[in-house]
Amino acid sequence: MMLLTAMPASRAPGAVPTVPVVRTLAERLSERGQRVRVLVPESEAGDWPDGVELHLGRVTDPAEFAAAVADAELVFLAGLVGEPLASLRELTTTLVTGRVRRVVVLGSHGSDFDAGISDETWQWSAFERCLENGGIGRLWLRPTAVMASADVGGYPIPGSAVVDRIRRGQQVHEYLPTAPYAFIHEDDLAEIAATLLLGDRRSGTVDVSGTTVSAVERLAALGAALGVEPQLVELTADEAAERWRQAGWPEDTIGVMLYALPAFAAQPDNPALREQEETARTLLGRPPQTFRQWAARLADRVATPDGS
Asked: Helix 19-31 to helix 186-198 angle, to the nearest 10 degrees?
């Protein structure tokens, strides 16, 4: 039995949308003959593949997680980035005392930028040590931004929920719209997660990315796919920060964006991102899908009778 967890889209730094990833992952694993159980809040209960056992609850609730992980041997732990980690110790105890033999954690690169050891990093370090002591394999899967954020919202700010704005004919406001930003297709991320769950690697960190793409290029792809011409308004850093603040984005996320976008603009051919893209290519056995391909798939879904 495999347990997959997911949470609603979040605006916290590094909290890529997990539900679109886990939905595809559940489908891929089921196609490979695996028994799959998914733990998600009631708000995310729709559109899961046939045959998947659905548990309603939150990964941050110790009792709900304990009930869902019972008899599971493999766990894809997603949805904890950006969430309060008060229950992490209880979650860890549940994993160590159960039948689990491998955990793949969908993480973020946040710990790379800690000046010291933050409270969150300290807790994750304890989590890792406890699993190691318990003989449980542990892998960190750390993606760049996920393309699905353009549709479902959440982190990162560039392009978040932009599909809805384009459909409504609203202006799209972007800071440094020609800066390349790293995104990965949620289906590619799901395939990589399936490979790690079913493989025999027991430890380490796997950083993956798709191709980089600017806001200008993303809007062009979405406009072509949806048959509209998006209206782009370029913002200065101060204008962007104020607009994001008024829209309710957390200060930490705003700070990350004001750092990351100029950094990407200054180094468009980023060696670290190229390495992460190559890692994804190796695990997938093919090139990662592009944002233009993602946009074309979105147009196909919109064209179906149940599309919206």
From this structure: 50
Each residue's pLDDT tens digit, 109-164? 766 656 566 777 888 999 999 999 999 999 999 999 999 999 999 999 999 999 99
Residues in CB range of 225: below 8 A, 6 or more apart: 295, 296, 298, 299
Query: What's the pTM value of the predicted model, to 2 decimals?
Result: 0.94
Question: φ and ψ at 62, to 5 degrees?
Answer: -55, -40
- Give the distance from CA 26 to its chain's centroid: 15
User: How many Cα neighbours within 13 Å face the side chain of 162?
Assistant: 30
Query: Per 3-state DSSP, what percentage of the chain is helix, strand, and coil (rounded to 5)?
Result: 45, 15, 40
pLDDT in tens, 41-89: 999 998 899 999 999 999 999 999 999 999 999 999 999 998 888 899 9
Q: What is the mean pLDDT of the chain?
A: 92
* Beta carbons within 8 Å of 66's beta carbon, 6+ residues apart: 90, 94
Cα separation of 82 and 145, whole Å? 14
Which residue, among 307, 302, 295, has the nearest Cα to 185 in the 3D structure? 295
Percent with pLDDT over 90 in the chain: 84
What secondary structure letter does DSSP report for 111? G
116-120 long-range contacts (CB < 8 A, ≥24 apart) are: 120/85
Query: How many Cα atoms occupy the beta-carbon half-sphere of 120 within 13 Å?
Result: 17
**Count of CA atoms in the C-beta half-sphere (13 A) of 295:** 21
